[in-house]
Amino acid sequence: MLNYAAFLNGSLGLVYLGLGFWIVGEKLSEENNILPLHGWLMVLLQGFTWFFLGLAVRFKRHQLPHIAGLRLCSVLAFFIAGFHCVTSFWEAIVGDAVSFKMILDVMSFPGAILLMFCTFSGPKYAGADSETDGAAFYAPLPGEGGSGGDKINSDASLPPFEKAGLISRLSFWWLNSLMKKGKQKTLEDKDIPQLRREDRAEMCYLMFMEQQNKQKKQSSDSPSILSTILLWQRKQILISGFFALMKVLTLSTGPLFLRAFILVAEGKEAFKYEGFALTGGLFVTKCLESLSERQWFFRTRLIGLQVRSFLSAAIYQKQLKLSNPAKGLYSPAQIVSFVTIDAYKIGEYPYWFHQIWSTCLQLCLALLIIYYSVGLATIAALFVVILTVVANSPVGRLQHKYQKMLMGTQDKRLKAFTEALTNMKILKLYAWETHFKNVIERLRKEEFKWLLSVLSQKGYIVILFWSSPIVVSAVTFWTCYFLGTTLSASNVFTFMASLSIAQESIRLIPDVISAFIEAKVSLDRIAKFLDAPELQNKHVRKMGDGKQLEESIFIKSSRISWEDNSTRATLRNINLVVKPGEKVAICGEVGSGKSTLLAALLGEVPHVDGIVRVYGKIAYVSQTAWIPTGTIQENILFGSAMDPYRYGEAIEKCALMKDLEMLPFGDLTEIGERGVNLSGGQKQRVQLARALYQDADVYLLDDPFSAVDAHTATNLFNEYVMGALSIKTVILVTHQVDFLPAFDSVLLMSEGEILQAATYDQLMHSSQEFQDLVNAHNAMVGSERQPEHDSTQKSKIRKGEIQKIYTEKQLRETSGEQLIKKEERETGDTGLKPYLQYLKYSKGFLYFFLSTVSHVIFIVGQLVQNYWLAANVQNFSVSRLKLIAVYTGIGLSLSLFSSLRSFFVVLLGLGASQSIFSTLLSSFFRAPMSFYDSTPLGRILSRVSSDLSVVDLDVAFKFSFAVGAAINTYASFGVLAILAWELVFVILPTIYLSILIQRYYLAAGKELMRINGTTKSFVASHLAESIAGAMTIRAFGKEDRHFSKNLDFIDINASPFFYSFTANEWLIQRLEILCAIVLSSSALALTLLHTSASKSGRCFSSQIYYCFSLVYTAQLHLNLLVCLNIPNYQFSKMKSQIHSATSTI
């Protein structure tokens, strides 16, 4: 890239210098004078500037210590070259000659663009400057390893985007290998390349935190998330903004080219070969427009991906630190929705960010061209545009209110849904499915009320902005009539072309407003969650310094409470000292504070008046077992390295050997979510094995024997507590008083206080409360013989036998299927299946037919309106009054049909959304437990949260717009065939090639979309599991490991999304280049055929509209595939899985 820039700009500099010296020589030979100076001196200055800038780019790493100076020069050079390029084009179009200097000025603009690329993005892409991409503060997470950086930086493992050069990046050529592979075979997860390091969730999180820390140092106030994101992404925002500016400027030249072609058709050529010059200029302009728009959308999508990845990581990290009072405010379903819905909506907003100012700029430029065409009548057009925006202001405020209420009711519905799914076994055992289904349906009705308001407001906005261009044109023509402005073919077609630009901008405003409102509501929700109180438990744990400790646990506190303003503390007057190696039992009646005492030792209780200290590594076994999805081996290791002897001993001490022999895959058997395919006792023993394998210093056991039978409990106590943990500090909460004589100390608790702390015998002699507790237990279960604690009776197992057992398990045949099945996805071309599935719900075909008919009438009306204007603008037998009156009457009827279309689209969306939800809800409550055993909760929540949200808000409108754009394309083609049949021979090959390109794309593009949909559930499932087991994760100090695992899941989902939207840009860029070729060749053909001005104007306008409709149809079709194909398929696939599970019973 540097060589390209140096060569091009250096060559331009030499040519400019040669031209300057040639001008000086000519002036001296002809006039014997070099005055005036500005002519040749400016050329020489341009030559020296481009030549030395080329040299600077070539040798900047060695000779320029201040890169900022070169960047400033490149920006100035870009604006100067752009000014010269535009003025040269203008002189060539309206002037009467083309000079060599004009050609040089036009060529200097691409050189300036290339120069700016080199100075702003060259070092980062080349990978030479590590400081530009955050490597200066990159630190691998625990468990990542030190070799990861070498692996990432090795050229063989670099993703294709990172290895691509400038031309490859601009043309998306680097994606060809993936597209070719998708054409040859069905893409799988392993075929998708990894992301660049700066696009991965870990780097995004680190760079955001680095930026936030910088802001905190500069200001005492806490920086907002939005300001930090803007500062973090400011460079990429500016670069994408530059491409947005280029797109707007190149798009605005369309009406000028149209006017110039009409003048050529009228015989008013500025110079002999003006038609050829205009054709070449039009082709270059359209190519630049395509390049700039594709880079604009690609880079903003990439910004959104990085922001989404950061937010997902930040939400996960926050839930690991969330305090218990804050957990009461945010349910697990709500936290999952922050990632699956809100983070995704915010990630989509950067795509629309530049539309805010670029739409305004595009409108202003269109109005300037309109002023050039119709003069003071532009004021009327401007007035209508301003009135439209002002009228939208209260609608926008209502939209924000309704969106906020919709998200709130959605959270309530997801909370109830999560509770029902989590406790589905209890609901089925008690036959409570109908009741809970009715509860969720009532919540859905409340949500549906706000959904109706949101979609209705969306429909109103669409009507307002789709009718606005019609009103603008009518008002402008009436103003021309009253002002006496002459209407000719050139100014009318220029005005209509400019109006089409304004129309595109105006029609984008509803989408921009909707995206802004949704992103703002979501950002406010996430920001509030990230500001929630966190646990302050750093003071509790103290690691040993290698010296012999006098105490393992020390508590001296007058008050320990879960709530700050509670009148009665949970624990009071707690004084406890436990020495290393001591065994302490805690007993007492239910609700006496035993579990709270363990929670205080873990730092989970927020309000502690006094001192709580725990020295050494902690292992914790909760009262309710937390078993994350994975194999038994993964649950026991819990991120630690495999030690066969220690692993075998943990299995043997926890009496898991026989259980593993019965399982189909032994310890490699996958445990369902929450350990659904294990009994309560098995889950507790897996927990005990996990704690034992960690080889901690302090063991906190919260009644682990309550879920096992008496014989197993006795065996576990002897082998585990008194054997394996013989030299460890143990705090055991238990109701089984038979084990108490073996402990060094027994704590008797009642009503939040430690009544007495002594040995078993001392308590039996001195405490009536303890005697009552023991007698009550004996009366319930009967007197049993005290367990023997002789260490000689403990069964032993030799190290060789343990190694043999482990080896046998590793070599076990893995035949059959695991419980947790991989999420299925459809492959190949589904044709019309997703669309038909969507339309079959709740009179969908009827509403779709009515909306399509309304749109067809709207398109026909537009064609009639334009034909009336074009046919009679030069027909002086038709008065101006009649011309404009008929034009206005047709426009008013078009507004009516536009309103009908929006009305039917809203009905289509509401009916389909409600029917899909009802069908899915019934399927869930009819599903057998085998379905829930094999389907992670996060996968189901992903369907009923993010996917259902897409169906609720997006599918109907995008479906309608995609069909409408396709109708526009065919209508434009029909008009061209009627007006100039010769052009059919140019356009038919275009249609054929576009179909081939789209088929080539769809082979890979659809698979990327489907993989993106299935991998999204990984993030949701892992987040839901981590929320349930946050206390256990913190107790073992495994926050970094689980955070790193979450980052991996985020990247697994982000990678197909990145290549999916890149493939979209790959397709659209090729269609746009194809359209540019057709448009340029057709314009040249019309010029050579010497068609009339009116016919030439209509044909050229129809070609522009045809090309725009073709590309716009492809864009909307791709958006529709994202919105419709994934969730609609996932719903049907999930229902088929439910049906399959039901049929096996």
Structural commentary:
- By secondary structure, this protein is mainly alpha-helical.
- Helix content is 70%, strand content 6%.
- The chain contains 40 helices and twelve strands.
- The strands form three sheets. It has a six-stranded mixed sheet, sandwiched between helices.
- α20 runs antiparallel to α21, α20 (433-483) runs antiparallel to α33 and α24 crosses α30.
- It starts with a helix and ends with a helix.
- The model is unreliable at 61-66, 122-154, 783-816 and 1125-1134 (pLDDT under 50).
Distance between the termini: 64 Å
Radius of gyration, Cα only, in angstroms? 36 Å
Low-confidence stretches: 61-66, 122-154, 783-816, 1125-1134
**Which term fits the overall shape?**
elongated
Widest sheet: strand order?
Answer: 6-9-10-4-11-12
Number of strands: 12
What percentage of residues falls in helices of 4 or more residues? over 70%
Question: How would a crystallographer describe the biggest sheet?
Answer: 6 strands, mixed
User: How big a fraction of the residues is strand?
Assistant: 5-15%
Tally of contiguous helical segments: 40
Structural class: mainly alpha
How much is the average pLDDT?
A: 77
